[in-house]
Amino acid sequence: MNKVAHYLQEHVVGEVMTGTDARNYFSTDNSIFSITPSVIVYPKNENDVRKTARFAWQLAERNRIIPITARGSGTDLSGAALGSGVMLAFPAHLNQVKFVDAKNGVVTVEAGINFGKLQQLLLTYDRFVPAAPASLEYSTVGGAVANNASSIRSIKYGDMRHYVKGLRVVLSNGEVIETGKLSKKELNRKLGLATFEGEIYRAVDTLLEENRELVEKSSLNVTKNATGYDLADVRSEDGSFDLTPLFVGSQGTLGLVTEVTLDSEPIGGDPVLITAHLDSVDALQSAVEELRKLEESPSALEVVDDNLLNLVSSLNANYLKDVIELPYPKFVLIVEFDSAKEHKQKKLVKQATKILSKLSQQVEVEEDTDKQEVLWKIRESSAVVSGHNQGQLNPLPLIDDGIVPVDKLATFINAVYSQFSREHLQVALWGHAGDGNLHVQPYLNLSQVGDRQKAFRMLEEYNRQVRDLGGSLSAQYNDGRLRGPYLDKLYPADVHALFQKIKKIFDPYNILNPGVKINVSLEEVKPLVRSSYSLDHIFDHLPLS
Ligand SMILES: Cc1cc2nc3c(=O)[nH]c(=O)nc-3n(C[C@H](O)[C@H](O)[C@H](O)COP(=O)(O)OP(=O)(O)OC[C@H]3O[C@@H](n4cnc5c(N)ncnc54)[C@H](O)[C@@H]3O)c2cc1C
Protein backbone atom coordinates (compact mmCIF):
# COMPACT_ATOMS: atom_id res chain seq x y z
CA MET A 1 0.00 0.00 0.00
CA ASN A 2 1.45 3.40 -0.94
CA LYS A 3 2.24 6.09 1.66
CA VAL A 4 -0.82 8.20 0.86
CA ALA A 5 -3.12 5.20 1.29
CA HIS A 6 -1.34 4.26 4.47
CA TYR A 7 -1.81 7.73 5.96
CA LEU A 8 -5.47 7.81 4.96
CA GLN A 9 -6.11 4.37 6.36
CA GLU A 10 -4.78 5.50 9.71
CA HIS A 11 -6.83 8.70 9.75
CA VAL A 12 -10.21 8.03 8.16
CA VAL A 13 -13.01 5.82 9.46
CA GLY A 14 -14.17 4.60 6.02
CA GLU A 15 -12.45 2.01 3.82
CA VAL A 16 -9.23 2.78 1.94
CA MET A 17 -8.36 0.54 -1.01
CA THR A 18 -5.48 0.12 -3.40
CA GLY A 19 -6.25 -3.39 -4.71
CA THR A 20 -6.15 -3.98 -8.45
CA ASP A 21 -9.85 -4.85 -8.74
CA ALA A 22 -10.98 -1.67 -7.05
CA ARG A 23 -8.53 0.51 -8.99
CA ASN A 24 -9.64 -1.11 -12.27
CA TYR A 25 -13.28 -0.61 -11.41
CA PHE A 26 -12.79 3.10 -10.82
CA SER A 27 -10.57 3.53 -13.91
CA THR A 28 -13.60 4.07 -16.17
CA ASP A 29 -16.84 6.01 -16.06
CA ASN A 30 -19.35 6.12 -18.94
CA SER A 31 -17.07 8.30 -21.07
CA ILE A 32 -14.57 7.24 -23.73
CA PHE A 33 -11.68 7.85 -21.29
CA SER A 34 -9.82 5.77 -18.75
CA ILE A 35 -7.52 6.78 -15.86
CA THR A 36 -6.52 4.47 -13.01
CA PRO A 37 -6.66 6.06 -9.56
CA SER A 38 -3.97 5.23 -7.02
CA VAL A 39 -6.20 5.14 -3.94
CA ILE A 40 -9.92 4.70 -3.38
CA VAL A 41 -11.61 6.00 -0.23
CA TYR A 42 -15.20 5.28 0.82
CA PRO A 43 -15.70 8.19 3.23
CA LYS A 44 -17.81 7.12 6.19
CA ASN A 45 -18.75 10.68 7.09
CA GLU A 46 -18.02 14.28 6.22
CA ASN A 47 -15.02 14.27 8.53
CA ASP A 48 -13.37 11.65 6.31
CA VAL A 49 -13.86 13.91 3.29
CA ARG A 50 -12.49 16.84 5.27
CA LYS A 51 -9.41 14.90 6.42
CA THR A 52 -8.66 13.68 2.90
CA ALA A 53 -8.81 17.21 1.53
CA ARG A 54 -6.77 18.58 4.42
CA PHE A 55 -4.09 15.95 3.85
CA ALA A 56 -3.89 16.71 0.10
CA TRP A 57 -3.67 20.44 0.89
CA GLN A 58 -0.79 19.91 3.32
CA LEU A 59 1.06 17.81 0.74
CA ALA A 60 0.46 20.52 -1.88
CA GLU A 61 1.99 23.09 0.45
CA ARG A 62 5.11 20.91 0.20
CA ASN A 63 4.84 20.84 -3.61
CA ARG A 64 3.35 17.36 -3.87
CA ILE A 65 0.01 17.30 -5.67
CA ILE A 66 -2.35 14.40 -5.03
CA PRO A 67 -5.51 14.99 -7.05
CA ILE A 68 -8.88 14.29 -5.44
CA THR A 69 -11.80 13.19 -7.59
CA ALA A 70 -15.29 13.04 -6.11
CA ARG A 71 -17.27 10.15 -7.49
CA GLY A 72 -20.97 9.40 -7.46
CA SER A 73 -21.96 6.35 -9.50
CA GLY A 74 -19.56 7.05 -12.37
CA THR A 75 -22.19 7.43 -15.11
CA ASP A 76 -20.51 10.62 -16.28
CA LEU A 77 -20.23 10.84 -20.08
CA SER A 78 -17.51 13.49 -20.21
CA GLY A 79 -14.67 11.74 -18.34
CA ALA A 80 -15.08 13.85 -15.20
CA ALA A 81 -15.53 11.00 -12.72
CA LEU A 82 -11.94 9.84 -13.30
CA GLY A 83 -8.66 10.82 -11.69
CA SER A 84 -5.14 9.58 -11.06
CA GLY A 85 -4.98 10.30 -7.32
CA VAL A 86 -7.52 9.74 -4.56
CA MET A 87 -10.99 8.65 -5.68
CA LEU A 88 -13.59 9.63 -3.07
CA ALA A 89 -16.57 7.36 -3.69
CA PHE A 90 -19.61 8.92 -2.02
CA PRO A 91 -22.38 6.33 -2.54
CA ALA A 92 -20.84 3.68 -0.25
CA HIS A 93 -21.77 5.47 3.00
CA LEU A 94 -22.80 9.07 2.38
CA ASN A 95 -26.23 8.11 1.07
CA GLN A 96 -28.78 9.14 3.69
CA VAL A 97 -31.81 11.42 3.71
CA LYS A 98 -31.13 14.00 6.43
CA PHE A 99 -34.31 16.04 6.47
CA VAL A 100 -37.67 16.31 4.71
CA ASP A 101 -39.86 19.38 4.98
CA ALA A 102 -43.09 17.80 3.76
CA LYS A 103 -44.98 21.11 3.74
CA ASN A 104 -42.61 22.95 1.43
CA GLY A 105 -41.16 19.95 -0.40
CA VAL A 106 -37.60 20.79 0.59
CA VAL A 107 -35.29 17.88 1.25
CA THR A 108 -31.71 17.60 2.50
CA VAL A 109 -29.72 14.52 1.48
CA GLU A 110 -26.16 13.29 1.55
CA ALA A 111 -24.47 13.65 -1.83
CA GLY A 112 -24.04 9.92 -2.49
CA ILE A 113 -27.73 9.04 -2.29
CA ASN A 114 -29.15 7.30 -5.34
CA PHE A 115 -31.34 9.79 -7.23
CA GLY A 116 -34.00 7.17 -7.96
CA LYS A 117 -34.32 6.46 -4.26
CA LEU A 118 -34.84 10.14 -3.49
CA GLN A 119 -37.43 10.43 -6.26
CA GLN A 120 -39.32 7.45 -4.81
CA LEU A 121 -39.33 9.11 -1.41
CA LEU A 122 -40.63 12.39 -2.84
CA LEU A 123 -43.39 10.58 -4.71
CA THR A 124 -44.82 9.52 -1.37
CA TYR A 125 -45.34 13.25 -0.74
CA ASP A 126 -46.78 13.72 -4.29
CA ARG A 127 -43.68 15.64 -5.27
CA PHE A 128 -40.68 15.16 -7.56
CA VAL A 129 -37.46 16.78 -8.77
CA PRO A 130 -38.16 17.28 -12.48
CA ALA A 131 -34.48 17.80 -13.38
CA ALA A 132 -33.52 14.22 -12.41
CA PRO A 133 -31.53 12.68 -15.28
CA ALA A 134 -32.74 9.67 -17.25
CA SER A 135 -29.93 7.77 -15.48
CA LEU A 136 -31.48 8.45 -12.04
CA GLU A 137 -31.85 4.77 -11.11
CA TYR A 138 -28.09 4.28 -11.27
CA SER A 139 -26.64 7.69 -10.40
CA THR A 140 -26.39 10.00 -7.40
CA VAL A 141 -27.78 13.38 -6.41
CA GLY A 142 -24.21 14.66 -5.90
CA GLY A 143 -23.32 13.71 -9.48
CA ALA A 144 -26.44 15.42 -10.84
CA VAL A 145 -25.61 18.58 -8.89
CA ALA A 146 -21.97 18.56 -10.01
CA ASN A 147 -23.01 18.09 -13.65
CA ASN A 148 -26.02 20.42 -13.54
CA ALA A 149 -28.06 17.55 -14.94
CA SER A 150 -31.39 18.00 -16.66
CA SER A 151 -34.19 15.93 -18.12
CA ILE A 152 -36.93 15.76 -20.73
CA ARG A 153 -39.04 17.91 -18.37
CA SER A 154 -36.42 20.66 -18.09
CA ILE A 155 -38.10 22.56 -20.94
CA LYS A 156 -40.81 23.50 -18.44
CA TYR A 157 -39.13 23.02 -15.07
CA GLY A 158 -35.46 23.90 -15.60
CA ASP A 159 -32.21 22.08 -14.79
CA MET A 160 -30.68 21.06 -11.45
CA ARG A 161 -29.52 24.62 -10.83
CA HIS A 162 -33.18 25.58 -10.37
CA TYR A 163 -33.63 23.06 -7.57
CA VAL A 164 -30.48 23.32 -5.48
CA LYS A 165 -31.15 25.67 -2.57
CA GLY A 166 -27.97 25.07 -0.64
CA LEU A 167 -24.98 22.82 -0.18
CA ARG A 168 -22.50 21.66 2.42
CA VAL A 169 -19.11 21.65 0.78
CA VAL A 170 -15.63 20.59 1.85
CA LEU A 171 -13.24 23.16 0.42
CA SER A 172 -9.84 22.28 -1.04
CA ASN A 173 -8.13 23.03 2.30
CA GLY A 174 -10.51 20.80 4.27
CA GLU A 175 -12.69 23.58 5.64
CA VAL A 176 -16.46 22.93 5.57
CA ILE A 177 -18.88 25.61 4.41
CA GLU A 178 -22.62 25.89 3.91
CA THR A 179 -23.88 27.75 0.87
CA GLY A 180 -27.22 29.40 0.23
CA LYS A 181 -28.73 32.75 -0.55
CA LEU A 182 -27.18 35.47 1.68
CA SER A 183 -28.59 38.90 2.41
CA LYS A 184 -26.22 41.88 2.23
CA LYS A 185 -25.77 41.73 5.99
CA GLU A 186 -24.97 38.02 5.93
CA LEU A 187 -22.55 38.54 3.08
CA ASN A 188 -20.73 41.23 5.04
CA ARG A 189 -20.28 38.78 7.89
CA LYS A 190 -18.75 36.24 5.47
CA LEU A 191 -16.49 38.90 3.96
CA GLY A 192 -15.08 39.56 7.43
CA LEU A 193 -14.14 35.94 8.19
CA ALA A 194 -10.45 35.27 8.75
CA THR A 195 -10.74 31.81 7.17
CA PHE A 196 -10.36 30.32 3.68
CA GLU A 197 -14.14 30.71 3.36
CA GLY A 198 -13.75 34.44 4.03
CA GLU A 199 -10.92 34.61 1.48
CA ILE A 200 -13.17 32.96 -1.12
CA TYR A 201 -16.09 35.32 -0.49
CA ARG A 202 -13.82 38.36 -0.69
CA ALA A 203 -12.08 37.20 -3.87
CA VAL A 204 -15.30 36.14 -5.67
CA ASP A 205 -17.14 39.32 -4.66
CA THR A 206 -14.27 41.51 -5.88
CA LEU A 207 -13.85 39.55 -9.11
CA LEU A 208 -17.54 39.78 -9.98
CA GLU A 209 -17.75 43.44 -8.98
CA GLU A 210 -14.74 44.38 -11.11
CA ASN A 211 -16.13 42.47 -14.10
CA ARG A 212 -19.83 43.29 -13.98
CA GLU A 213 -20.25 43.74 -17.74
CA LEU A 214 -18.28 40.63 -18.55
CA VAL A 215 -20.34 38.57 -16.13
CA GLU A 216 -23.50 39.78 -17.83
CA LYS A 217 -22.27 38.63 -21.21
CA SER A 218 -20.94 35.32 -19.88
CA SER A 219 -24.31 33.55 -20.34
CA LEU A 220 -24.84 31.73 -23.63
CA ASN A 221 -28.03 32.20 -25.64
CA VAL A 222 -29.49 28.74 -24.98
CA THR A 223 -32.23 27.37 -22.71
CA LYS A 224 -29.94 24.94 -20.82
CA ASN A 225 -26.20 25.06 -20.35
CA ALA A 226 -23.86 22.79 -18.42
CA THR A 227 -20.55 24.29 -19.59
CA GLY A 228 -18.20 26.66 -17.76
CA TYR A 229 -18.96 28.16 -14.35
CA ASP A 230 -22.24 29.96 -13.67
CA LEU A 231 -20.94 33.45 -12.92
CA ALA A 232 -24.21 35.23 -13.69
CA ASP A 233 -26.30 33.81 -10.84
CA VAL A 234 -24.02 34.50 -7.86
CA ARG A 235 -25.02 38.13 -7.29
CA SER A 236 -28.66 39.06 -7.66
CA GLU A 237 -30.15 42.46 -8.38
CA ASP A 238 -31.75 42.53 -4.91
CA GLY A 239 -28.23 42.57 -3.42
CA SER A 240 -28.24 38.92 -2.34
CA PHE A 241 -25.25 36.69 -2.93
CA ASP A 242 -25.01 32.91 -3.34
CA LEU A 243 -22.02 30.65 -4.05
CA THR A 244 -24.34 27.68 -4.77
CA PRO A 245 -24.64 28.30 -8.56
CA LEU A 246 -20.85 28.18 -8.87
CA PHE A 247 -20.67 24.71 -7.31
CA VAL A 248 -23.61 23.39 -9.36
CA GLY A 249 -22.13 22.22 -12.64
CA SER A 250 -18.53 22.56 -11.44
CA GLN A 251 -17.82 18.79 -11.71
CA GLY A 252 -15.96 18.57 -8.42
CA THR A 253 -13.38 21.16 -9.50
CA LEU A 254 -14.27 23.78 -6.86
CA GLY A 255 -15.28 21.73 -3.82
CA LEU A 256 -16.47 18.37 -2.52
CA VAL A 257 -20.21 18.38 -1.91
CA THR A 258 -21.30 16.37 1.14
CA GLU A 259 -24.92 17.50 1.51
CA VAL A 260 -27.50 18.91 -0.87
CA THR A 261 -30.70 20.78 -0.02
CA LEU A 262 -33.18 20.57 -2.88
CA ASP A 263 -36.51 22.05 -3.77
CA SER A 264 -39.10 19.85 -5.44
CA GLU A 265 -42.32 20.36 -7.39
CA PRO A 266 -45.81 19.07 -6.71
CA ILE A 267 -46.80 16.46 -9.26
CA GLY A 268 -48.69 18.25 -12.04
CA GLY A 269 -52.09 17.41 -13.45
CA ASP A 270 -52.84 14.18 -15.33
CA PRO A 271 -50.55 14.37 -18.34
CA VAL A 272 -51.83 14.41 -21.91
CA LEU A 273 -49.50 13.14 -24.60
CA ILE A 274 -49.61 14.19 -28.24
CA THR A 275 -47.57 12.53 -30.96
CA ALA A 276 -47.20 14.07 -34.40
CA HIS A 277 -45.63 12.48 -37.48
CA LEU A 278 -43.71 15.09 -39.45
CA ASP A 279 -42.25 14.61 -42.89
CA SER A 280 -39.60 17.33 -42.99
CA VAL A 281 -37.14 19.20 -40.83
CA ASP A 282 -38.88 22.46 -41.71
CA ALA A 283 -42.18 21.13 -40.37
CA LEU A 284 -40.38 20.11 -37.19
CA GLN A 285 -38.87 23.59 -36.86
CA SER A 286 -42.24 25.29 -37.29
CA ALA A 287 -43.95 22.94 -34.83
CA VAL A 288 -41.34 23.51 -32.13
CA GLU A 289 -41.34 27.29 -32.53
CA GLU A 290 -45.16 27.49 -32.49
CA LEU A 291 -45.50 25.18 -29.47
CA ARG A 292 -42.97 27.21 -27.54
CA LYS A 293 -45.17 30.28 -27.95
CA LEU A 294 -48.06 28.71 -25.98
CA GLU A 295 -48.92 30.50 -22.74
CA GLU A 296 -47.69 27.52 -20.70
CA SER A 297 -44.78 25.38 -21.84
CA PRO A 298 -45.28 21.72 -22.67
CA SER A 299 -43.76 19.55 -19.92
CA ALA A 300 -41.87 17.67 -22.65
CA LEU A 301 -41.16 18.40 -26.32
CA GLU A 302 -39.07 15.55 -27.65
CA VAL A 303 -38.06 14.27 -31.06
CA VAL A 304 -36.76 11.09 -32.69
CA ASP A 305 -35.93 10.64 -36.36
CA ASP A 306 -36.66 7.80 -38.78
CA ASN A 307 -33.02 6.69 -38.73
CA LEU A 308 -33.32 5.93 -35.03
CA LEU A 309 -36.60 4.05 -35.44
CA ASN A 310 -35.29 2.00 -38.37
CA LEU A 311 -32.10 1.17 -36.51
CA VAL A 312 -34.03 0.13 -33.40
CA SER A 313 -36.28 -2.09 -35.51
CA SER A 314 -33.28 -3.75 -37.13
CA LEU A 315 -31.65 -4.36 -33.71
CA ASN A 316 -34.81 -5.48 -31.93
CA ALA A 317 -37.73 -6.25 -34.23
CA ASN A 318 -40.23 -6.45 -31.36
CA TYR A 319 -39.40 -3.21 -29.59
CA LEU A 320 -41.58 -0.89 -31.67
CA LYS A 321 -44.10 -3.50 -32.79
CA ASP A 322 -47.61 -2.34 -31.82
CA VAL A 323 -46.17 1.08 -30.89
CA ILE A 324 -45.70 2.77 -34.27
CA GLU A 325 -46.44 1.51 -37.76
CA LEU A 326 -44.06 1.18 -40.69
CA PRO A 327 -43.03 3.08 -42.76
CA TYR A 328 -41.75 5.47 -40.13
CA PRO A 329 -42.20 9.21 -40.64
CA LYS A 330 -39.12 11.44 -40.96
CA PHE A 331 -39.65 12.74 -37.41
CA VAL A 332 -41.93 11.89 -34.51
CA LEU A 333 -42.56 14.82 -32.20
CA ILE A 334 -43.72 13.91 -28.70
CA VAL A 335 -45.49 16.64 -26.78
CA GLU A 336 -46.65 16.36 -23.18
CA PHE A 337 -48.76 18.77 -21.13
CA ASP A 338 -49.17 18.45 -17.36
CA SER A 339 -50.92 21.67 -16.41
CA ALA A 340 -52.42 21.45 -12.94
CA LYS A 341 -55.50 23.41 -14.02
CA GLU A 342 -57.95 21.27 -15.99
CA HIS A 343 -59.37 24.05 -18.17
CA LYS A 344 -55.85 25.32 -18.98
CA GLN A 345 -54.75 21.79 -19.84
CA LYS A 346 -57.70 21.37 -22.23
CA LYS A 347 -56.96 24.71 -23.88
CA LEU A 348 -53.26 23.88 -24.32
CA VAL A 349 -54.01 20.47 -25.83
CA LYS A 350 -56.53 22.03 -28.23
CA GLN A 351 -54.11 24.76 -29.32
CA ALA A 352 -51.23 22.31 -29.73
CA THR A 353 -53.38 19.91 -31.74
CA LYS A 354 -54.40 22.75 -34.04
CA ILE A 355 -50.77 23.79 -34.59
CA LEU A 356 -49.66 20.24 -35.26
CA SER A 357 -52.59 19.33 -37.52
CA LYS A 358 -51.54 22.07 -39.94
CA LEU A 359 -48.10 20.48 -40.21
CA SER A 360 -48.84 16.78 -39.92
CA GLN A 361 -51.17 14.16 -41.44
CA GLN A 362 -51.08 12.15 -38.26
CA VAL A 363 -51.64 13.69 -34.85
CA GLU A 364 -52.65 11.47 -31.95
CA VAL A 365 -53.86 12.74 -28.55
CA GLU A 366 -53.58 10.24 -25.71
CA GLU A 367 -55.09 10.75 -22.26
CA ASP A 368 -54.85 7.17 -21.03
CA THR A 369 -51.65 6.82 -18.97
CA ASP A 370 -51.12 3.13 -19.88
CA LYS A 371 -51.30 3.98 -23.57
CA GLN A 372 -49.01 6.98 -23.00
CA GLU A 373 -46.46 4.62 -21.51
CA VAL A 374 -46.50 2.62 -24.72
CA LEU A 375 -46.05 5.77 -26.82
CA TRP A 376 -43.12 6.91 -24.68
CA LYS A 377 -41.31 3.79 -25.98
CA ILE A 378 -40.79 5.74 -29.21
CA ARG A 379 -38.54 8.19 -27.37
CA GLU A 380 -37.07 5.60 -25.03
CA SER A 381 -36.00 3.50 -28.00
CA SER A 382 -32.82 5.63 -28.07
CA ALA A 383 -31.61 3.45 -25.17
CA VAL A 384 -31.69 0.42 -27.49
CA VAL A 385 -29.19 2.17 -29.75
CA SER A 386 -26.91 3.65 -27.10
CA GLY A 387 -26.75 0.29 -25.31
CA HIS A 388 -26.12 -1.82 -28.41
CA ASN A 389 -22.69 -2.68 -29.81
CA GLN A 390 -22.27 -3.81 -33.40
CA GLY A 391 -19.33 -6.18 -33.05
CA GLN A 392 -16.32 -4.01 -32.26
CA LEU A 393 -18.28 -0.89 -33.14
CA ASN A 394 -19.70 1.00 -30.16
CA PRO A 395 -22.07 3.96 -30.06
CA LEU A 396 -19.87 6.62 -28.47
CA PRO A 397 -20.75 9.57 -26.22
CA LEU A 398 -18.66 11.99 -28.23
CA ILE A 399 -20.77 14.63 -29.90
CA ASP A 400 -23.93 13.88 -27.99
CA ASP A 401 -25.05 16.99 -26.21
CA GLY A 402 -24.93 20.15 -28.34
CA ILE A 403 -27.65 22.73 -27.84
CA VAL A 404 -28.46 25.64 -30.14
CA PRO A 405 -30.94 28.53 -30.04
CA VAL A 406 -34.31 26.94 -30.82
CA ASP A 407 -34.72 28.88 -34.09
CA LYS A 408 -31.56 27.11 -35.34
CA LEU A 409 -32.80 23.56 -34.67
CA ALA A 410 -33.37 22.64 -38.35
CA THR A 411 -29.97 24.00 -39.39
CA PHE A 412 -28.37 22.02 -36.56
CA ILE A 413 -30.09 18.78 -37.62
CA ASN A 414 -29.06 19.26 -41.24
CA ALA A 415 -25.47 19.98 -40.17
CA VAL A 416 -25.37 16.74 -38.14
CA TYR A 417 -26.76 14.74 -41.07
CA SER A 418 -24.15 16.24 -43.42
CA GLN A 419 -21.35 15.52 -40.98
CA PHE A 420 -22.30 11.85 -40.63
CA SER A 421 -22.73 11.54 -44.38
CA ARG A 422 -19.24 13.00 -45.01
CA GLU A 423 -17.79 10.45 -42.59
CA HIS A 424 -19.85 7.61 -44.17
CA LEU A 425 -21.42 6.84 -40.80
CA GLN A 426 -24.89 5.66 -39.90
CA VAL A 427 -26.79 8.44 -38.13
CA ALA A 428 -29.65 8.13 -35.63
CA LEU A 429 -30.95 11.19 -33.88
CA TRP A 430 -33.06 11.95 -30.83
CA GLY A 431 -33.33 14.70 -28.27
CA HIS A 432 -34.98 17.58 -26.57
CA ALA A 433 -36.37 19.39 -29.62
CA GLY A 434 -37.99 22.10 -27.52
CA ASP A 435 -34.58 23.11 -26.19
CA GLY A 436 -32.67 22.69 -29.47
CA ASN A 437 -30.66 19.95 -27.73
CA LEU A 438 -29.77 16.87 -29.81
CA HIS A 439 -28.26 13.49 -28.95
CA VAL A 440 -26.43 11.46 -31.56
CA GLN A 441 -23.77 8.78 -31.16
CA PRO A 442 -21.44 7.64 -33.96
CA TYR A 443 -20.60 3.93 -34.08
CA LEU A 444 -16.79 3.72 -33.96
CA ASN A 445 -14.18 1.15 -33.00
CA LEU A 446 -11.80 2.75 -30.52
CA SER A 447 -9.20 -0.01 -30.94
CA GLN A 448 -8.59 1.29 -34.50
CA VAL A 449 -6.25 4.25 -34.94
CA GLY A 450 -8.33 5.45 -37.90
CA ASP A 451 -11.52 5.55 -35.85
CA ARG A 452 -9.78 7.33 -32.97
CA GLN A 453 -8.62 9.99 -35.41
CA LYS A 454 -12.11 10.15 -36.87
CA ALA A 455 -13.55 10.60 -33.38
CA PHE A 456 -11.47 13.70 -32.70
CA ARG A 457 -12.05 15.03 -36.23
CA MET A 458 -15.79 14.72 -35.68
CA LEU A 459 -15.56 16.31 -32.25
CA GLU A 460 -13.65 19.29 -33.67
CA GLU A 461 -16.07 19.78 -36.57
CA TYR A 462 -19.23 19.28 -34.49
CA ASN A 463 -18.05 21.74 -31.84
CA ARG A 464 -17.24 24.31 -34.50
CA GLN A 465 -20.73 23.96 -35.99
CA VAL A 466 -22.43 24.31 -32.62
CA ARG A 467 -20.37 27.43 -31.86
CA ASP A 468 -21.16 28.90 -35.28
CA LEU A 469 -24.87 28.43 -34.55
CA GLY A 470 -24.47 30.37 -31.31
CA GLY A 471 -25.01 27.29 -29.16
CA SER A 472 -23.33 25.51 -26.27
CA LEU A 473 -21.33 22.29 -26.50
CA SER A 474 -23.22 20.76 -23.61
CA ALA A 475 -26.78 21.21 -22.38
CA GLN A 476 -26.57 18.57 -19.66
CA TYR A 477 -23.49 16.30 -19.76
CA ASN A 478 -20.99 19.06 -18.90
CA ASP A 479 -17.40 19.70 -20.02
CA GLY A 480 -15.22 17.08 -18.35
CA ARG A 481 -12.23 15.96 -20.38
CA LEU A 482 -14.25 15.71 -23.59
CA ARG A 483 -15.35 19.31 -23.99
CA GLY A 484 -13.02 20.99 -21.49
CA PRO A 485 -10.36 21.53 -24.20
CA TYR A 486 -12.91 23.58 -26.19
CA LEU A 487 -14.08 25.82 -23.37
CA ASP A 488 -11.70 28.62 -24.36
CA LYS A 489 -13.18 28.64 -27.87
CA LEU A 490 -16.78 28.47 -26.69
CA TYR A 491 -16.49 31.57 -24.50
CA PRO A 492 -14.81 34.91 -25.23
CA ALA A 493 -11.20 34.96 -23.95
CA ASP A 494 -11.96 37.41 -21.15
CA VAL A 495 -14.86 35.27 -19.87
CA HIS A 496 -12.70 32.16 -20.01
CA ALA A 497 -10.03 34.03 -18.04
CA LEU A 498 -12.68 34.69 -15.35
CA PHE A 499 -13.39 30.94 -15.17
CA GLN A 500 -9.67 30.34 -14.63
CA LYS A 501 -9.61 32.92 -11.85
CA ILE A 502 -12.60 31.28 -10.16
CA LYS A 503 -10.82 27.92 -10.25
CA LYS A 504 -7.70 29.50 -8.75
CA ILE A 505 -9.68 31.15 -5.93
CA PHE A 506 -11.31 27.90 -4.81
CA ASP A 507 -8.47 25.53 -5.57
CA PRO A 508 -5.14 27.38 -5.63
CA TYR A 509 -3.06 24.16 -5.72
CA ASN A 510 -5.19 22.47 -8.42
CA ILE A 511 -6.02 19.49 -6.23
CA LEU A 512 -9.73 19.13 -7.07
CA ASN A 513 -10.34 17.06 -10.18
CA PRO A 514 -7.49 18.56 -12.25
CA GLY A 515 -7.73 18.00 -16.00
CA VAL A 516 -11.51 18.38 -15.90
CA LYS A 517 -13.44 21.31 -17.39
CA ILE A 518 -10.79 24.01 -17.00
CA ASN A 519 -7.09 24.25 -18.00
CA VAL A 520 -7.16 21.04 -20.03
CA SER A 521 -5.81 20.49 -23.55
CA LEU A 522 -6.53 18.01 -26.33
CA GLU A 523 -2.92 16.79 -26.11
CA GLU A 524 -3.58 15.77 -22.50
CA VAL A 525 -6.83 13.92 -23.15
CA LYS A 526 -6.07 12.09 -26.40
CA PRO A 527 -3.81 9.48 -24.74
CA LEU A 528 -6.56 8.80 -22.18
CA VAL A 529 -9.02 7.38 -24.73
CA ARG A 530 -9.75 3.75 -23.93
CA SER A 531 -9.34 1.03 -26.53
CA SER A 532 -12.81 -0.38 -26.07
CA TYR A 533 -16.03 1.18 -24.82
CA SER A 534 -18.97 -0.14 -22.85
CA LEU A 535 -21.70 1.06 -20.48
CA ASP A 536 -20.85 -1.75 -18.01
CA HIS A 537 -20.71 0.42 -14.93
CA ILE A 538 -24.38 1.22 -15.01
CA PHE A 539 -25.35 -2.16 -13.61
CA ASP A 540 -22.32 -2.71 -11.36
CA HIS A 541 -21.97 -2.55 -7.61
CA LEU A 542 -19.12 -0.91 -5.77
CA PRO A 543 -16.21 -3.28 -5.15
CA LEU A 544 -15.30 -3.97 -1.55
CA SER A 545 -11.59 -4.51 -1.96
C1 LIG B 1 -27.50 6.01 -20.11
C2 LIG B 1 -27.23 7.37 -19.54
C3 LIG B 1 -28.25 8.31 -19.53
C4 LIG B 1 -28.00 9.60 -19.03
N1 LIG B 1 -29.02 10.50 -19.03
C5 LIG B 1 -28.81 11.75 -18.57
C6 LIG B 1 -29.86 12.72 -18.58
O1 LIG B 1 -31.00 12.45 -18.95
N2 LIG B 1 -29.57 13.96 -18.14
C7 LIG B 1 -28.34 14.30 -17.67
O2 LIG B 1 -28.15 15.44 -17.27
N3 LIG B 1 -27.34 13.40 -17.63
C8 LIG B 1 -27.53 12.14 -18.05
N4 LIG B 1 -26.51 11.22 -18.02
C9 LIG B 1 -25.20 11.62 -17.49
C10 LIG B 1 -25.03 11.26 -15.97
O3 LIG B 1 -25.66 10.03 -15.70
C11 LIG B 1 -25.60 12.32 -15.04
O4 LIG B 1 -24.92 13.53 -15.17
C12 LIG B 1 -25.58 11.91 -13.55
O5 LIG B 1 -26.26 12.88 -12.81
C13 LIG B 1 -24.19 11.70 -12.98
O6 LIG B 1 -24.32 11.16 -11.68
P1 LIG B 1 -23.24 10.15 -11.07
O7 LIG B 1 -23.64 9.84 -9.68
O8 LIG B 1 -23.05 8.98 -11.95
O9 LIG B 1 -21.95 11.07 -11.08
P2 LIG B 1 -20.44 10.71 -11.48
O10 LIG B 1 -20.42 10.21 -12.88
O11 LIG B 1 -19.84 9.83 -10.46
O12 LIG B 1 -19.79 12.14 -11.40
C14 LIG B 1 -20.18 13.18 -12.26
C15 LIG B 1 -19.40 14.44 -11.91
O13 LIG B 1 -19.81 14.86 -10.62
C16 LIG B 1 -18.70 14.98 -9.74
N5 LIG B 1 -19.19 14.61 -8.42
C17 LIG B 1 -19.85 13.48 -8.06
N6 LIG B 1 -20.14 13.52 -6.75
C18 LIG B 1 -19.66 14.69 -6.27
C19 LIG B 1 -19.63 15.29 -4.98
N7 LIG B 1 -20.16 14.70 -3.93
N8 LIG B 1 -19.02 16.49 -4.85
C20 LIG B 1 -18.46 17.12 -5.92
N9 LIG B 1 -18.46 16.59 -7.15
C21 LIG B 1 -19.05 15.39 -7.32
C22 LIG B 1 -17.67 14.03 -10.31
O14 LIG B 1 -16.36 14.40 -9.92
C23 LIG B 1 -17.89 14.22 -11.79
O15 LIG B 1 -17.25 15.40 -12.18
C24 LIG B 1 -26.72 9.93 -18.54
C25 LIG B 1 -25.71 8.97 -18.54
C26 LIG B 1 -25.96 7.70 -19.03
C27 LIG B 1 -24.85 6.70 -19.02
| Unique bound compounds | flavin-adenine dinucleotide
Instruction: Count the E strands.
Output: 19
Quaternary structure of the protein: single chain
N-to-C span = 13 Å
Uncertain runs: none
The rough form would be described as: globular
Alpha plus pi helix count: 20
CATH architecture of the domain at 271-476: 3-Layer(aba) Sandwich
Give me the CATH fold name of the domain at 271-476.
Vanillyl-alcohol Oxidase, Chain A, domain 3
- Structural class of the helix and strand makeup? alpha+beta
CATH superfamily grouping of the domain at 271-476: FAD-linked oxidases, C-terminal domain
Please describe the biggest sheet, giving its number of strands, its sense, and whether it closes into a barrel. 6 strands, antiparallel
What does this structure look like?
This protein has about 550 residues and is of the alpha+beta class. Among the domains are: about 95-265, Uridine Diphospho-n-acetylenolpyruvylglucosamine Reductase, domain 3, CATH 3.30.465.10; about 270-475, Vanillyl-alcohol Oxidase, Chain A, domain 3. The chain contains 20 helices and 19 strands. The chain has helices at about 5-10, 20-25, 45-60, 115-125, 140-145, 155, 185-190, 195-210, 210-215, 245, 280-290, 305-315, 340-360, 370-380, 380-385, 410-420, 450-470, 485-490, 495-505, 520-525, and strands at about 15, 40, 70, 85-90, 95-100, 105-110, 125-130, 165-170, 175-180, 255-260, 265, 270-280, 300-305, 330-335, 360-365, 395, 430, 435-440, 445. The strands form 5 sheets. The chain has a 6-stranded antiparallel beta sheet, sandwiched between helices. A 5-stranded antiparallel beta sheet has the order 5-6-10-8-9. The chain has a 4-stranded mixed beta sheet with strand order 1-2-4-3, with helices on one face. A hairpin with a 4-residue loop joins strand 17 and strand 18 (about 435-440). The two termini are about 15 Å apart. The structure holds flavin-adenine dinucleotide. Flavin-adenine dinucleotide binds near residues 69, 251 and 257.
